[in-house]
Amino acid sequence: MASFEGRLLGRATELAELSRLAQSTLAGMGQAGFVVGEAGLGKTAVLDQAAADARRMGIQVLSASAQNLAQPCPFAVISHCLRLEESPSDERRAQVTEVLRGDARYGVPGARHEAAGADAATIEAMVGLVEDLCAQGPLALFLDDLQWADPASLAVLHRLVRSVHQLPLLVVGAHRPVPGAGDVAHLSRSPIAGNRTLLELAPLDPQAVAALLADLCGREAGPRLRRMAEGAGGNPLYLTELIAALRREHAIENGETAEIAADCALPPLTALVTHRLRYLREDVRQMLRIVSVLGTGCTTAELAAVMDIPLSDLLTAMAEAEASGILRDTGQFLRFRHELIRDALYDAVPGSVRAVLHTRAAQRLAEAGAAPERVAEHLLDGAPNPEFLINWLEGSAARLTTRAPAMALRLLTTALELGDPAAAGYGNLRLHHAVAQLSCGHLAEAEESARSALAKAPDAGLESVLRWIVLQAAFARGRPDLALAEARAGYRSPGVGAIERVQFQAFSAVCLFALGDLTEAGAVASRARSAADEAGDSSALASTLHVLAAKRFLETPDAEAVELARQATRLTPDTMHPAQWLGLQLSLVNCYIDLDLGPEAQRTLAAVRRPAEHIGGVFLPWYHLSCALLAFHTGRWDDALAEIEAGLDCGDQAAMSRALRAMAAVIAAHRGRRPLAEAHLTAVLPEPDNATVAAFYEYLPMCARALLDEARGDDRRAYSRFAEAFDQGVGHLPGQLILGFLTPDLVRLALAQGDHDSARRYAAAAQRRAEDSGGLYHLGDAYRCEGLLGEDPDLLLEAVRCYRNAPRPLNAAHACTDAAEALARRGRLDDARVLLDQALETFTRLGAAWDAAQATSRLRAVAVRRGSHRARTGVRDGWQALTHTERLVAEHVAEGCSNPEIAARLSIARSTVSTHVSSILRKLAMTSRVEIAAEVTRRHRA
User: 229, 260, 228: which is closest to 247 by C-alpha?
Assistant: First the structure.
C-alpha cells in the first residue's frame, strides 16, 4: 500500500488506534487488536507500520505470516513468530521446542481434538514462553494472514488474547473475512475481557484515492484516469498495481494532470499483479514460480537446493525480484510483497509440475536433515516416489507422529497403499500407521489396524507392540473387557517374549481392576508382581503395585496401602514410560489426600508439576483436579477454584472436565450460588467414563447433585441419591469402599427420614474405615456418625478435634453445628452458642453462605442465636479479599517475576498463577501488573 510522508494513506484512524494499544501495552496493560479486510486493502501494510511504531516505542516485536497450505503443520505460525527454530541456543526456547517435539507423548492415546496437534502441553509451554518474554519487557506479536493459520496456533493465540489484560503484551492479527475462517473470526470478534479491538478496513474514500493517485503519478490525476480508478473500488493494491502497469506501458500522458487515453480499459487485478513479471528475465520468473509452490516458509538455502543452482546465482535473481516489487526482504525466509502475487504465480504452474517441485523439495530437505514436519508438508502436496516415501517414513515416522500425528497418518496411509505387502519393511509401516491412529485419538481404527496386522503373522518383535496398541486403544475407549481379552491372549502367545508376558499379565490386573473385579485383580497382580520382580521389569512391577495399592486402599485404607503406592512411585521414570510414572504419582497424591497427609501430597504435586505440563493429555487436568481436591479439603476454596479453572483450560479432556465442573458446582452450592452450580452441572457431559482414571471421580457429579437437592429443600431426594450410590456403587466401583466419606451425611439424612436401621449401618461402615486407617479424618467421621446417632455432644466434639487436626475445616464446622444442636437440646445454650459462632466463623472464612444459613436455621429452632455479629459473608473486593496464595502471587509480581517464575517459586502450575493474577486484578479493580506492584510497594512503605 502506498504511503505519503512516511504514513499510510487513508489509514490514519487505524494506525492511531494501534498506536494507542501499543502505548497501553508500554504502560503495562496489554491489548489485542485485529485488522480485518479484503485482499489488497492494506492489512499487511498497516501491520508493518504498526510494528515499526511499536519498535520505536521500545517494545520487542515478533512477527510471522501464515501460509496457504492444505494441511499446515501444528503450531507452525506461532512457532515461527516466537522464533523457536531460529534460536536453538536460547535455553528457554529450547525447552519449548522439546515439548513441541512431543517425545514423552509417543504411544500415548490421544484425544480426537488433538488430531490437529493442538495438545495442551505445547499450548501451555508456548504461553509460558510468552509470559517469560513479557517479564523482560513489553512484547508485541504481529501475525498476518490468520485466515490460513493452523488450528493449534489459533489455540495458543486464543489463550494469549484472554490473558493480555495481565501482561505487557500486544497481540495484533490480520485476516481476510473469507469462508472457512470461523476459528479466527471467533478469536477476533468475541469479547475478551474488554481488551480486544476490532479494526475493519474499508475501501479508501474518494479523497484518499485522489491523494494516492497524485502520490503515485507525481501530479493530480486527470478525469479519465480518475474514472478508471473508480473501478478499483478504493482498493489500494489495485490502484498501486494499476498505476505501476500504466507507467511500465508508458500509458500515462504528461501534462498538467496525469491522464490516460480515452480507449484505455481497466484490467482485472490479477492481470495487473502478473504484469510485473513480463519485465523479468525468464530465470527470475522460474525462480518465483518455484517459490510460489514451496511457500513463504522456504529459506534461500532450501530454494537453492531445490533449484540445484549456486547460492550466488540465486541471490542475484532474488535481488532483481525484490527490485521489481515482487519479493520482500524479510531475512532468511522468502516472502512475496503480496499474497495475490504468489497466488497468480502458483495458479500459472500446472498441477503436475507443482507435485514434482514439492517432491523434489521434500527429497532435498530430507537430505539436508530438515525437521520431519517440513519434509511432510511437501510430501503431502507432492507425488512422492514410493521407494523414497517408504524409506523416509521408516526413519522419520516416530518423530513425525509425536510432532504432527495427522500428517503422519496421511503419509503412512499413502505408503501402505503404494507399498508391497510382501516387502520386508511393510510390517513396520503397519505398526507406525496404528500408532499414528492412536495418537490422533482414532482409537477404534487403531485397534482394528493393529488386529489386522496381527492377523497377517507379523515379523518377529512386532507382535508384542501390536498387541499393546490393541490394549491401549481398547482401554482408552472404555472397553477394558476387550483389553483384558487381548492381554490374556498376549500372555498365552508363543510368539511373545518372557518379559512381554509379564507385562501382559500385569496389565490384565489393571483391566480386572477397571472392570470392578477386585478379588481377581489382586490375585493376578500378586502373581505378576512376583514374576516382574524375578524378570527385573520395572514397568510391569509398577503396574502390579499400583493395582495392589489401589485395591488395598479401597478395602483397607491404611499405612500398607500407602507403602505399596510409594513402592510403585520409587521406580524411576527412566525405567518406564513417563506417562505411566506420572499416573502413579498422581494416584499416590490422592491416597495422601484421603489420609490427610497434606505435606506429602503437596510435595508430590510439586514434583509432578513440570512432567504434567510437558506430557499434557489427561494428566494435566488430572494434576489440577488433584490440586483442587487438596485445596478444597484443607479450606482453600479460592485456590481450588483457580486450579479448576486452569484444569478446564487444558483442552477437551471430557472425562476430567466432568469431574472439574462437578467440583466447581460443589463449591458454588456451598456458597449459596445455586444458578452457578446448576450451570456447571448442565455443562457436564451426560455419559460417565467408567474405564479410565476418571471413574474414580464419578462421585463428584453425584455429590454436587445431592447438595443441590438439599439446597432446594429436597432432603429425601438427596438421601435417596446418596444411599443408592453407597449401596449399589458408582460405575463399577463399590460404593461402600469409595464413598466412606459420605457416612456422616448419610447418617444425618437417614435420621431425618426416620431410617434408624440404615443410619446404624452407615455408622458401622464409618467405624470400620476408621479402624483400618487410623486417619484423623476417618476417625472424625466415625465419631460424628456415633455422635449423631446418640445425640452425644462429647463424641461430636471429639469429631471436631479430629477434623481440625486433619485439617478438614468444612467437616469441623459441620460437626460444631451438630454438637451445638446436641448441647442446646440438653439445655446448655451458652456452650451451644460458642460452638455456633465457631462454625459460622469457619463458614464465613470459606464463603460457605448456604452452610452458614443452614446452621443458623438449625440452631434457631432450638433457641440458639449467634453470640457475635460479625459480617456474615467474606470480603469480595479490595486487598482484604485476597487469599493467602493471591497475596504471595502479588508479592512476586511486585518483584517483577513472570508467571512461570512465580509458578516455580510456589510449586504450582503456570496456568494457576495466571488465574490468580486475573483474580487479583479483579478484586483490586486494577488493569495491569504495574498497578499490582505499585500497591504492594505502597503497603510495604505503610
Answer: 260
pLDDT for residue 367 is more than 70: yes
Amino acid at 763: A
Instruction: Over range 309-327, report the average pLDDT.
Output: 86
- Residue 191's identity, in one-letter code, is P
190 or 787, which is more confident: 787
Name, in order, each residue with C-beta under 8 angstroms of 414's C-beta and a sequence gap of 6 or more: 384, 389
Average pLDDT of 428-435? Answer: 93
Q: Write the single-letter amino acid at 357.
A: L
Q: What does the chain come to in residues? A: 942
In degrees and rounded to multiples of 5, residue 149 shows phi and psi of -65, 145
Write the CB contacts of 464 (distance below 8 Å, at least 6 apart in sequence): 490, 496, 497, 500
Of the candidates 552, 551, 618, 545, the residue with the CA atom closest to the CA atom of residue 579? 618
pLDDT band at 800 (very low <50, low <70, confident <90, very high): very high
Determine the Cα–Cα distance for residues 536 and 538; give it in Å rounded to an integer.
6
- 601: CB partners within 8 A, 6+ apart: 589, 592, 593, 626, 630
Residue 333 parent element (H or E): strand 333-336
Q: Is the pLDDT assigned to residue 117 strictly greater than 60?
A: no
What type of residue is 375? V
List, for residues 585-632, the tens digit of each pLDDT value. 898 898 899 888 899 999 999 999 999 998 888 889 999 999 999 999
Query: 104, 152, 162, 98: which is closest to 619 by C-alpha?
Result: 104
CA distance 745 to 78: 51
Pairing of strands 139-144, 169-175: parallel
- pTM score of the predicted model: 0.85
- Name the β-bridge partners of 7: 4
Strand pairing category for 196-200 and 333-336: unpaired
Cα separation, 795 vs 784, whole angstroms: 7
> What are residue 87's phi and psi, to 5 degrees?
-125, 60
Q: Is the pLDDT of residue 192 over 60?
A: no
In angstroms, rounded to a whole number, what is the distance separating the alpha carbons of residues 803 and 823? Answer: 19
Q: What residues contact residue 939 under an 8 Å CB cut-off, 6+ apart?
A: 879
Q: Which of 224-228, 283-287, 555-559, 788-792 has the highest mean pLDDT?
A: 788-792
Q: Measure the CA angle with vertex 565, ends 561 and 571; round to 5°.
A: 150
Of 742, 774, 771, 772, nearest to 759 by C-alpha is 742
| pLDDT above 70: percentage of residues in the chain | 94
Angle between helices 462-476 and 498-514 (to 10 degrees): 10
CA distance 445 to 815: 53
Which residue type, as a one-letter code, is found at position 222? G
Average pLDDT of span 529-533 = 93
10 Å CB burial of residue 493 (0-12, 13-18, 19+) is: middle
Using CA atoms, how far residue 485 sits from 312, 329, 492, in Å, is 64, 61, 11
Preceding omega of 686 cis (within 30 degrees of 0) = no
Note the pLDDT of residue 104: 77
Residue pair 921/163 in contact by the 8 Å Cβ criterion:
no
The DSSP bridge pattern shows strands 327-330 and 7-8 to be unpaired
Residue 304 grid coordinates: 537453492
List Cβ neighbours of 774 (8 Å cut-off, separation of 6 or more).
558, 559
End-to-end CA distance of the chain: 55
pLDDT band for position 768 (50/70/90)?
A: very high
- DSSP class of residue 252 equals S
> Which pLDDT band holds residue 772 (cuts at 50, 70, 90)?
confident
